[in-house]
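This part of the workshop introduces the protein records we will be handling. An example says more than a description, so a record of this kind follows:
>
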Amino acid sequence: MVLKEWYTEMFKELFLSTIISMSLSLKTSNDETKPYDYELMIQAQKDDKNLSYFIKRDWERELGEKYINNIFKIKYVNSNNIYYGLDLIDKESKDMEYSTINSGYKFPLGIQVGLSLKNEDDDLDALAHISYDNIIKKNNTDYILSLSIKSDFANNNILNTRADIKTWITDNINLFFLAKNIYYSDKEDFQFKVGLGFKL
């Protein structure tokens, strides 16, 4: 009985207040001999004080080539303001694949400082990590800003920025604008999307 209650509470913690968002874009290809380019995106995110995650999958076709891109990020902050997290990045369309384990201290006002261990091609590197996360709620709109820098002050540099604006049409349905940029060594991926989201 105790175990069942624990699973129930864990399920609530993980999935309540999760926001599911979707977008679809179509455009003519830069090569007239190729079919239309498209991108279908679905994502789930939760931005709470102690637990946050961001899960995103894209199905793309560009110049006739099909790609699947995955992003998974999760972070937990305990009662002593120590955070633990995991980032998994796999973007076929940009030839970008790596993972990091993150830990450090969360200061007031959303600033976090710590250490990340990056794994790529079975090589493990230690990176300094500083990030900033903030959510501003005004009227029916949420403004979410996230900035993360990981670096060994040499050739290993990862910069992540995300700006997300959600306007709530009802208590559970929103229109969103998302702008994201990932800079990883010499590779860069910039995206912006407009779509529809709903809260579980």
Summary: The radius of gyration is 18 Å.
